[in-house]
């Protein structure tokens, strides 16, 4: 099997969920030189596609995600989400950050309901959705607990449930499992695949783990060191659902080896 | 078991201290207006309470203290929220805050008595001014302490500034506000007593001054006992409130020893 360069997005519909053109981000620093975090980046994501983004530390991955989440404006270029120009946060985009970012004064259920409160949706109706999502992330019965009573992995699953509450069609994840131990991480990977296959969302996952990227993604994008640009776009042709055991297969190893080679040539990856 | 033992030892130690105090004041013939023996203090306390004299003054002082505490704290929280939320407002008032912050506010008590008279309002304002600053400063710090990632998350949901304030900044500020209240509760009593010293028709501060000019040492000490009882009770009430409000904050469960100044 040869490793293919993807010719761009491919999905059932072929329509673009995310389309980034010439996106550039410069951080202004008072009294010092500006930091060019992202350099004229182009990315296309088809609807329903699972895309992983890997790259060396500090290359601008989180910057890209924050722009797509509407938290920060780009300096130049534009991003289209479902064909519409991105101007700020959108309710159909869910975000999961590296740490769970739960609110300690809210119960688990109320944490999952946070987007419902902010978007002023019908609380009664979404309560049952939240309970269903907690079941989906296997946290049934924890709705009345507080975050400090949960382990790191459980908290991260709450964050995933929260990002799904208002059924966003697009999920942005910034190293969501970075803080977990290897065992928990692999279990979370399997769960994320299951959730994705059940819900069919478009996912952009930033990760430092090459096996995680290969295991989960339809396509893996590789970024150069700062200022970040996409230097490789690789299609992962492994059948779904991928069992955990696939990580031991020769095909899997070839993808991982190829990506690792690329990243080392580009100045390394940490973790 | 060991708890019972600890309590017994504490009581024994207290009895020993009181006994030593009692005996030495008698043995060395210390005049009562310098240091009265505990038995005299207890007698004075009993007489003052049973005659209703202390209760009347206590009522006045308590009313001024609590009103000042509530008004000063609310004002501090509201102004702190305004300073933390509006840059323009901060620019306008910050110079005054800096100026007043390092001034010993008790020194303003004579002015309040001059402006507001010998009645309760000069005591309330004096107490309120002392409570105001720790609350304002802690509220500002607390509202600004909101976690960057949580702010990003709220923004990604499209939350308005007010929603971020309500759902994130305010709860994040609560530990700071509660710490401010713990300080303020002690300060409000100080503010009231100092203003009563300057001039008042009633109150425990006035009582102490009258007793002082009558060289009634036992009386003064008995009022001091009463004042610490008030202080302890208010401190306890705020600590209970804090535990109730900050049930989610693990740090509040460990500092049972309590802060005092
Ligand atoms: N708010 C900011 N202000 C100034 N510079 C920033 C800011 N955020 C990020 N940067 C800079 O932009 C560059 C890219 O940062 P970014 O967080 O996007 O990297 P990253 O690829 O997510 O790294 P990592 O893998 O370590 O998370 C870095 O050099 C960083 O120092
Ligand atoms: Mg990052």
TrEMBL record, chain A:
One Gene Ontology MF term: ATP hydrolysis activity
Task: Note whether Nucleotide-binding occurs among the keywords.
Answer: yes
Q: Which InterPro entries match?
A: AAA+_ATPase, ABC_transporter-like_ATP-bd, ABC_transporter-like_CS, ABC_transporter_ATP-bind, P-loop_NTPase
The organism's superkingdom is given as: Bacteria
Recite the UniProt keywords alphabetically. Answer: ATP-binding, Nucleotide-binding, Transport
User: What Gene3D superfamilies does this protein map onto?
Assistant: P-loop containing nucleotide triphosphate hydrolases (3.40.50.300)
Every copy of the ABC transporter domain together lies at 18-250
Q: Does the keyword Hydrolase apply?
A: no
Q: Which family does it belong to?
A: Belongs to the ABC transporter superfamily.
State the name under which the record lists this protein. Answer: NitT/TauT family transport system ATP-binding protein
Task: Give the species.
Answer: Devosia enhydra
TrEMBL record, chain B:
List the InterPro entries. Answer: MetI-like (IPR000515), MetI-like_sf (IPR035906)
Does the record's keyword annotation contain Transmembrane? yes
| Ranges where the ABC transmembrane type-1 domain occurs | 58-242
Q: Which GO terms describe its biological process?
A: transmembrane transport
SUPFAM superfamilies assigned: MetI-like
List, alphabetically, the GO terms of the cellular component aspect: plasma membrane
Principal place of residence: membrane
Top-level lineage group: Bacteria
Which keywords appear in this protein's UniProt record, sorted alphabetically?
Cell membrane, Membrane, Transmembrane, Transmembrane helix, Transport
* Name of the protein this chain belongs to: NitT/TauT family transport system permease protein
Source organism per entry reads Devosia enhydra
């Amino acid at each position: 099997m040869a490793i293919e360069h993807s010719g761009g997005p491919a999905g059932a519909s072929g329509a673009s969920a995310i389309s980034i053109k010439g996106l550039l981000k410069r951080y202004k620093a008072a009294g010092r030189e500006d930091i060019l975090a992202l350099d004229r980046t182009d990315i296309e994501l088809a609807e329903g596609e699972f895309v992983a983004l890997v790259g060396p530390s500090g290359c601008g991955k989180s910057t890209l995600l924050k722009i797509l989440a509407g938290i920060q404006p780009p300096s130049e270029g534009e991003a289209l989400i479902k064909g519409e120009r991105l101007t700020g946060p959108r309710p159909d985009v869910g975000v999961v950050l590296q740490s769970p970012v739960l609110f300690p004064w809210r119960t688990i259920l109320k944490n999952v309901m946070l987007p419902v409160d902010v978007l002023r949706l019908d609380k009664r109706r979404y309560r049952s959705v939240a309970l269903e999502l907690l079941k989906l992330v296997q946290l049934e019965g924890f709705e009345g607990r507080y975050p400090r009573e949960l382990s790191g992995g459980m908290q991260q699953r709450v964050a995933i449930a929260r990002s799904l509450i208002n059924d966003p069609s697009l999920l942005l994840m910034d190293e969501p499992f970075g803080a977990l131990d290897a065992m928990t991480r692999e279990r979370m990977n399997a769960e994320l695949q299951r959730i994705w296959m059940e819900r069919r969302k478009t996912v952009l996952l930033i990760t430092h783990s090459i096996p995680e990227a290969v295991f989960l993604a339809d396509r893996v994008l590789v970024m150069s060191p700062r200022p970040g640009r996409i230097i490789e776009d690789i299609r992962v042709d492994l059948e779904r659902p991928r069992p955990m055991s696939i990580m031991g297969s020769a095909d899997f190893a070839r993808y991982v080896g190829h990506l690792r080679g690329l990243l080392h040539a580009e100045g390394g990856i940490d973790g | 078991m060991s708890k019972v033992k600890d309590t017994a030892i504490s009581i024994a130690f207290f009895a020993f201290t009181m006994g030593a105090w009692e005996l030495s004041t008698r043995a060395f013939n210390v005049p009562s207006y310098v240091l009265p023996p505990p038995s005299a203090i207890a007698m004075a306390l009993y007489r003052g309470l049973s005659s209703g004299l202390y209760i009347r003054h206590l009522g006045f002082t308590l009313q001024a203290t609590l009103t000042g505490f509530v008004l000063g704290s609310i004002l501090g929280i509201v102004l702190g929220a305004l300073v933390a939320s509006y840059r323009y407002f901060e620019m306008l008032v910050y110079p005054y805050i800096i100026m007043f912050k390092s001034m010993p506010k008790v020194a303003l008590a004579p002015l309040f008595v001059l402006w507001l008279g010998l009645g309760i309002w000069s005591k309330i304002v004096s107490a309120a001014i002392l409570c105001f600053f720790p609350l304002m400063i802690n509220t500002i710090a607390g509202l600004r302490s909101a976690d960057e990632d949580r702010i990003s998350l709220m923004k990604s949901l499209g939350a308005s500034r007010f929603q971020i304030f309500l759902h994130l900044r305010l709860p994040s500020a609560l530990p700071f506000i509660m710490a401010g209240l713990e300080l303020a509760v002690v300060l409000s009593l100080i503010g009231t007593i100092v203003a009563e010293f300057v001039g008042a028709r009633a109150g425990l501060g006035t009582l102490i001054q009258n007793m002082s000019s009558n060289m009634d040492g036992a009386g003064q000490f008995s009022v001091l006992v009463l004042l610490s009882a008030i202080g302890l009770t208010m401190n306890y009430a705020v600590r209970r409130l804090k535990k109730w409000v900050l049930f989610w904050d693990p740090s509040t469960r460990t500092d049972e020893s309590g802060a005092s100044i």
